[in-house]
Amino acid sequence: MFHFSNIVRTKGDPRIIEGGPSLKQPADQLARALGWFSIGLGVVELFAPRRVTETLGMEGHETMVRAFGVREIMAGIMTLSVEKNAGLWTRVGGDGLDAAALLSGLTPDNPKKGNIALALLMVGGIAMLDYRAAQATKSRRPARDARRKLYPNRSGFPKGVESIRTAARQIAAHAGQNEVKQGDERRVP
Predict the structure, then answer these.
(1) Long-range contacts: 62-69, Cβ < 8 Å, 24+?
(2) By C-alpha distance, which of 130, 61, 60 is closest to 94?
(3) Structure confidence by residue, pLDDT tens digits, 19-55
(4) What is the pLDDT of residue 189?
């Protein structure tokens, strides 16, 4: 990627010679991958709902598949945003809705029950990834009733304020003696 950034840099800007290690944690990378997966799946559900329903033997539910597509796209966008944890929890809830919709298609007269079973397995696996990523990206704030650490006796000086005052007096006294000596030397011919 840094090669592309060198192309678009203006004249005089420093060039990037080498890329370094990523600062993203594995949980952030998983959330990003799930966000893009969600957007891709949502686009398929939104623009090709008939293909999805035919594959599952659930013809006539195209409107529901389109609505699920919009939900997937919105959850994917949230997962790629700063509020990735909210997007991931939205995905977890959406996985529950997907599973419920798929279970409704497991009827004895559906010739494509095998496809629905496979889709249920996939939804279950993705749901576990969504849940894991949501747990890993939750904010690390202390509990509201947690005891706060207060440091009213700290000054920022390791040896205390009084030691700094003493050192300042010594420096001032030493500087005053130097001025007197320099002044005496000037008077003597």
Answers:
(1) 64/101, 68/42, 68/94, 68/97, 68/98, 68/101, 69/41, 69/42, 69/43, 69/44, 69/45
(2) 130
(3) 666 667 888 899 999 999 999 999 999 999 999 999 9
(4) 46
Burial class (CB in 10 A: 0-12, 13-18, 19+), 150: exposed
Distance CA 95, CA 106 (A): 17
Six-digit token pair at 159? 């040896």
pTM above 0.70, yes or no: no
Structure tokens at 91: 């995905």
C-alpha pair distances (Å), 47 with each of 94, 155, 182: 19, 64, 90
Residue identified by tokens 């945003």 is: 81
- Tell me the pLDDT band of 163, cut-offs 50, 70 and 90: confident
